[in-house]
Amino acid sequence: MHTIEVAGVEIDTRHYVNGQRLASPETYTNTSPIDGTFLGEISRGDSDAVDAAVAAARAAFPAWAALGPKKRGELLNKLADLVEENVETLANIETLDNGALLRSHLRGVMPRVAMNIRFFADYAINDLHHDVFETRGHTNNVSWDPSGVAALITPWNAPLMLATWKIGPALAAGDTVVLKPAEWTPLTASYFADLTKRAGIPDGVFNVVFGYGSEAGAALTAHTGISRISFTGSVPTAKIIAHSAADNLTPVSFELGGKSPCIIMADADLDLAAEIAVEQYDNAGQVCLSGTRILVHESIADVFADKFREKAAALVQGDPRDPATDIGPQIHQVHFDRIKGFVDRATAEGHDIVWGGGPNEELGGLYFRPTLVKNPTPGSEVLTSEIFGPVLAMQTFTTDDEVIAMANGTEFGLAAVVVSGDRVHAKRITDQLVAGTIWVNCFFVRDLRAPFGGSKKSGIGRDGGTWSFDFYADVKNTVISPNGWKE
Ligand code: NAD
Question: Which residues fall within 8 angstroms of residue 72, CB to CB, at 6 or more apart?
């Protein structure tokens, strides 16, 4: 059997290569984080599967590149239409596979998947241009040429959503694609591959290889036939991929982890602040952008903490398919144990665990209670390491200089949140923060025209608008002299 049935549709568990399904000799087991249900056996990609996928993508590249943005855009818009028509199916598949809230997948995430494809397809047609500029009468013409095969490696916390931030611009730029989704969440990538076929995307333009990072992922990133590596995942994996990319000098784009601050200023609207702070538990804390370090001005710390507690206590933990649920399970036992390790060590070290602090015993399985650690010792791992679970730390500060030092005091620089009632004061703070994205009095607002990425160890490069095309395409400048023309 090479299929899994979810929500009335059959999902193929084999790789998608050159428009066909391809099985590897080995498989691995996929289970649902919701209740541990066995979902199926997934093809465990090896270098043979990767070779086949890269060969297919290379063979398809010249014709796809030659189509041009407009014709590619028609096919990609058809793909976006199909995603929109299948939002419910995609949402059900993703929730079963990664345990994130069905209501979020239905309302926000899957419609955004369609938007990701549509946005970059249309951007390539309408917005990708550079003003011609003159140098002593010579004109400089900048263009974005397709570069070849883009290898895309993605994580499990928002599988299809994050993959299409890459697939959209790569295909719109005229590259062909080999996607290696995270081993714990292969299913939406497979169904999406079927949609690319139905949309009429030519065989070989989009390929998927399943399997482990150390096998399929390593073979893909080391491949000499690829022209780009776009990776979203953890810092340790990025370091391995960077070594592999160095051998072939393959350009990389890295979207990595974070340990972002959520700063509550003394002048903040404290109801808004509490609401934003509670949002940091979204997706059971498995969000790279989460402001997991709540930094509160001392003068309002007690009032804020009461409001925060009230809102956090109202969060409902349970089955992510239930519309009433706010916090679902963690992705996998391995990840659950890692989170528990952080909290157990914090407890053993005598940190003040204000609420949560362990598994939800009533629900069992992979459900970890939303947890708050108050005033951990500076330098302790709950303040410096990315836990990637529903574990927040709260600290107080008294001066701007102090909070800026605290906010910038990790190796990460992905995001920051500032809650303030004073625009001038808020700007003084944001000007000094090191982060790829800063949200002021809001969280998670993302426009695809805007740059997105991390500073310091949180990443290399930026996605969004022209930044995405600058990466996936070969950017070319053609300088034309006023002399020598025969007309
Ligand atoms: P991970 O690094 O373990 O795995 C990510 C992907 O890399 C998976 O597909 C995995 O199979 C693959 N991989 C693993 N080893 C590999 C290797 N040697 N060669 C090639 N590929 C390999 O990360 P994860 O646990 O899946 O995801 C969580 C991490 O992702 C967190 O650090 C989180 O912050 C980060 N993340 C970042 C963003 C962002 O936009 N900055 C978004 C989501 C998640």
Answer: 64, 121, 124, 171, 172, 174
Token pair of 462 as six digits: 């930026």
Round the CA-based radius of gyration of the chain to a whole number and report it: 23
| HSE-up (13 A, CA, CB side) for residue 463 | 28
Rounded CA-CA distance 44/477 in Å is 42
Helix (H) or strand (E) holding 134: strand 133-135
* DSSP character at residue 209: -
Give the binding-site residues of ligand 1, using a 6 Å CB cut-off: 153-157, 162, 180, 182-183, 212-214, 217-218, 221, 232-234, 237, 240-241, 255-258, 288, 386, 388, 414, 454, 459
167/160 Cα distance (integer angstroms):
10
Could you tell me if 342 and 382 are in contact, meaning their C-beta atoms sit under 8 angstroms apart? yes
What sign does the CA torsion over 121, 125, 126, 128 have? positive
CB contact at 8 A, 400 and 310 = no
Helices (H) then strands (E): counts for the chain: 15, 24
| Sheet containing strand 473-480, strands side by side | 133-135, 138-146, 473-480
List the structure tokens of 309: 């507690």
- Here the tokens at position 327 are 């916090």
Whole-angstrom Cα distance, residue 67 to residue 158? 31
Beta partners for residue 41, in sequence order? 29
CA of 62 relative to ligand 1 center, distance in Å? 30
Q: Among 40, 43, 13, which Cα is nearest to 29's?
A: 40
Tens of each residue's pLDDT in the chain, 487 residues: 799 998 899 999 999 999 999 999 999 999 999 999 999 999 999 999 999 999 999 999 999 999 999 999 999 999 999 999 999 999 999 999 999 999 999 999 999 999 999 999 999 999 999 889 999 999 999 999 999 999 999 999 999 999 999 999 999 999 999 999 999 999 999 999 999 999 999 999 999 999 999 999 999 999 999 999 999 999 999 999 999 999 999 999 999 999 999 999 999 999 999 999 999 999 999 999 999 999 999 999 999 999 999 999 999 999 999 999 999 999 999 999 999 999 999 999 999 999 999 999 999 999 999 999 999 999 999 999 999 999 999 999 999 999 999 999 999 999 999 999 999 999 999 999 999 999 999 999 999 999 999 999 999 999 999 999 999 999 999 999 999 999 8
Ligand 1 centroid from CA 455, angstroms: 17
d(CA 232, CA 281): 20
